[in-house]
Amino acid sequence: MRHRIALICLLAVGAAGQAAPVWTKFVAPDKSYSFHYPTGWKAGVGDLGIQVDETTTGEQLLALSSKTERDETAQAVTLRVIETLQRVEPSLKLIQWDELGDKGEFALARIAYDEADRPFTGNALVVLSDESALWFSYAAAEADYSRLRAKALLDGFIHSFADGPGSKRPEVAIPELETGRLDRNARAFIFVVEFGCGTAFTEAQEQALRGEVVAAWAETPAARRAQYDQYPALMKVILALKQDDLATLQGQIRQSLQEILAESQTSPAIATIRQQMDKSNRALVAGTPPLSAAAADGYAELWAFAEALGKDSTAGPEDISPSVVESTRAGLLKSWPAFTDADKQAVLGAPALWMAVRMTFRQGTAEEKQQVRASLKKLVEAQTSAPPAATSPGGKPTSSGGSATELGRRYLAHQTLMMMQQQTFNTYMWSRGFPGWTPMGKMW
Fold first, then answer.
1. What does residue 143 show for φ and ψ, rounded to 5 degrees?
2. Is 443 exposed, middle or buried (0-12, 13-18, 19+ CB in 10 A)?
3. In this prediction, what percent of the chain has a pLDDT beyond 90?
4. 121: alpha, beta or left? (left if phi > 0; alpha if psi -120 to 50)
5. Are 396 and 389 in contact (CB under 8 A)?
6. What is the structure's pLDDT at 392?
7. Which of 92, 244, 323, 410 is the least buried, fewest Cβ under 10 Å from its Cβ?
8. Rounded to 5 degrees, what are φ and ψ at 137?
9. Contact at 8 Å (CB) between 269 and 212?
């Protein structure tokens, strides 16, 4: 199965190279030296030396200078610097070291320490000169540590140092942080499952599934984890193909996924995916057509996002309120029998639309995101301008100020139908290759 998907990726996109990252130059206040560090990190000079931190992940680069005694070896310098750093971080310890060079002028070391109850590990390089020694090190949380990432960061950092302000940007590609890489691959894998099986998961389902998949993949050997890098490439293929090719690819992926889903008895992550798919297909309200759990959940989350945007125009799909989702879902279930056929079809299309909205925020341009925000905010504006009922059928006010029935029948279904007819969404769905979508709307 993995070979078939890999072949599809190679045929469609070819071998993908990794672009060099963006580096930022640091120039000393007196312009005596300069160096480059990864953009987004925080660089500064302290009592011990130069420190560059990635504040989100806890990764750290250090560059320290120390005077040396006559005939002092790199090993001796390494132990002395460790003692100095232990005054700041008492848990720091030297795991192993190797002395290199004809005269022991280099030393490579592995270090470890604990920070905020998390174990950290890293690499250090000590270089001797005539009367001084330089210490360079990189450290990351043990769960995130990657030897290739450590090497790339140290190579770019060290070789960018220059006398004066003339540091040159290093042409070094930095491998992705391991947890970020797994999360990216898991998101793409879930998208491939949605596409292949014709199921659009909700935001809550995606979050739960992503956690299960990342946890399962993190326990696999590094060589096998590398195979999961194929899924983002496959997702790009799916989003780029035209309608004529999508049906064939979807059939091939569906067949491959059946093999994966058959592993549910031995894989907790796959079992969770099967459970979520079964949950999505379950009918909540009988009828022609019935209201599925996927439609109700996707619809409620879409509305909750619209409300979040009404309060904060910078909100993202992850900012939806669980209480708004629940109240909207409850109102939808009560209102379903009174919906027109057109309203019901609008609701049933909500999961795919909600998936497209989330995909826009992950893959779209700033202009596309703004178009989505503007369209969704109209839902809240339309509801606010209409005269809602004051209480729910049980006599309690709803979170949006109208009754659950009115909220479901009068605003949600009708406004979602109108939104789905807007060319902004239809064109987006069509241009990204979602099956059945045209610039005029969903045809099948």
1. -70, -25
2. exposed
3. 18
4. beta
5. no
6. 39
7. 244
8. -145, 155
9. yes
Better-scored residue on pLDDT, 16 or 137: 137
- Indicate the residue type of 90: P
Tell me the two tokens of residue 133.
């020694």
| Block residue for tokens 């979807």 | 250
- Tokens matching residue 151: 């090497």
| Local confidence band at 418 (pLDDT 50, 70, 90 cut-offs) | low
| Residues paired with 106 in a beta bridge | 100, 127
Put simply, whether the predicted model's pTM sits higher than 0.85 gets the answer no
- In this predicted structure, the answer to whether residue 145 has a pLDDT above a threshold of 50 is yes
Q: Are 284 and 291 in contact (CB under 8 A)?
A: yes
Q: Could you give the CA distance from residue 327 to residue 297 in angstroms, rounded to a whole number? A: 11
Dihedral of alpha carbons 250, 253, 258, 260, sign: negative
Question: What integer is the mean pLDDT of 76-96?
Answer: 89
Cα–Cα distance for residue pair 227/151, rounded to 1 Å: 21
Euclidean distance between the first and the last CA atom of the chain, given in angstroms as a whole number: 29
- Which residues pair with residue 33 across a beta bridge? 163
Cα–Cα distance measured from residue 42 to residue 30, given in angstroms and rounded to the nearest whole number: 19
Where does 229-349 have alpha helices with state H?
Answer: 230-240, 243-261, 268-281, 293-311, 322-335, 341-348
Q: How confident is the model at residue 251 (pLDDT cuts 50, 70, 90)?
A: confident
CA angle 288–294–296, rounded 5-degree value: 70
What span, in angstroms and rounded, lies between the C-alpha atoms of 54 and 77? Answer: 27
- At 253, the pLDDT band (50, 70, 90 cuts) reads confident
Tokens linked to 79? 């132990």
Contact status, residue 297 vs residue 205, Cβ threshold 8 Å: yes
Report the amino acid identity of residue 179: T
206: amino acid identity, one letter? E
Q: CA-CA distance, 89 to 84, in Å (whole number)?
A: 9
Helix (H, G, I), strand (E, B) or coil at 340: coil
